Task: inverse folding
């Protein structure tokens, strides 16, 4: 996945979930944050961030904040990227299958349905940006919606579907992945329940540059 025009800037503050103030080429600029999560460990004053220029001239903000440096690690924090990366990756892995995005199942809209001759596989994709010493966790804030999706995947397995919870780690060199029980114990409980029920739990790290992100390799899942 490639971005367009990308510039380096420095983070100043985040007045709300949707915008940030950054220093770009000596000027304070308001930009859109493409991630409504907390990201408190990422967006610290003075952090080096990367902005993509928007393509809509009528927009209030001309730039989108898409990545941040945390120490020596570059982390993509574009919340739209994981689904796009997964769609590109699964087409490369299995070009013959049919991929249905935004698939309605039960009371939820799951990210993907993969249609193969032998049946359907439902996939919910989650982006991971929370990291400490290479150990990656999800979520960074309580997510009732994420827990509900896991219960939908459990029900799908009970009804004869294949089902996968797929975690896209938006950085390189991840050592492992685990649920963030300290922040959201209900999600961790649901993820372990899903694994016991037959839901596949997968996590992949990514190759990341300021202007690109792509799927890299599987990462051990610790439940």
Result:
């Amino acid at each position: 996945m490639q971005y367009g025009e990308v510039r380096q800037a420095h983070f100043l503050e985040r007045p709300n979930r949707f915008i940030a103030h950054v220093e770009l080429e000596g000027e304070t600029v308001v930009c859109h944050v493409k991630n409504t999560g907390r990201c408190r460990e990422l967006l610290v004053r003075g952090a080096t961030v990367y902005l993509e220029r928007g393509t809509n001239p009528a927009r209030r903000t001309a730039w989108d904040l898409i990545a941040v440096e945390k120490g020596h690690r570059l982390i993509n924090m574009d919340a739209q990227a994981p689904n796009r990366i997964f769609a590109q990756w699964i087409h490369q892995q299995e070009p013959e299958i049919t991929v249905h995005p935004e698939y309605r199942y039960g009371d939820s809209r799951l990210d993907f349905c993969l249609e193969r001759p032998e049946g359907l596989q439902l996939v919910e994709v989650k982006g991971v940006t929370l990291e400490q010493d290479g150990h990656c966790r999800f979520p960074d804030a309580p997510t009732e919606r994420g827990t509900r999706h896991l219960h939908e995947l459990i029900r799908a397995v009970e009804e004869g579907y294949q089902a996968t919870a797929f975690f896209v780690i938006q950085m390189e060199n991840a050592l492992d992945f685990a649920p963030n029980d300290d922040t959201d114990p209900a999600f961790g409980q649901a993820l372990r329940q899903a694994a016991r029920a037959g839901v596949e739990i997968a996590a992949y790290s990514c190759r990341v540059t300021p202007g690109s992100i792509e799927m890299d390799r599987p990462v051990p899942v610790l439940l």
Summary: The CA atoms of residues 87 and 99 lie 8 Å apart. The mean pLDDT is 95. The longest strand covers residues 119-128. The longest helix spans residues 144-158.
